[in-house]
Amino acid sequence: MLVPILVVISYLFDFHLYTSTNTIILIASIILLVFFVIGLVYLLITRSHYERKLKASYQREMTIIITISAIGVLGLGIMYMYFGGPIYFVPHVITPTGIIMYFILYFVGVRYFNISLLKRR
Asked: I need a surface site. Which of 15, 58, 85, 119 has the fewest CB within 10 A?
């Protein structure tokens, strides 16, 4: 979801007026690759440190994932506009993607983060 997030940032700063959409997505993909490699190397180096940590619930981590996913879904709508899709179909792209993303986050939260998005506290 990092590429759509970077597309949202480029849309906010009107980078699409100065360069092509393909260049924006290429730069976003390169940035994603750099973050992926740095994160992978970091996790491989500190693997033994993180193997020992266990919490009852991962509320903070789940909140971060939900925020990133929400901005990513918005970015998918902006990418749809960038690729020439009619602007009046953007809600038809964002709504099903958001619903699918919510269901995925619900099952991931219950299974791995010990958090249910439907329970009241």
From this structure: 119
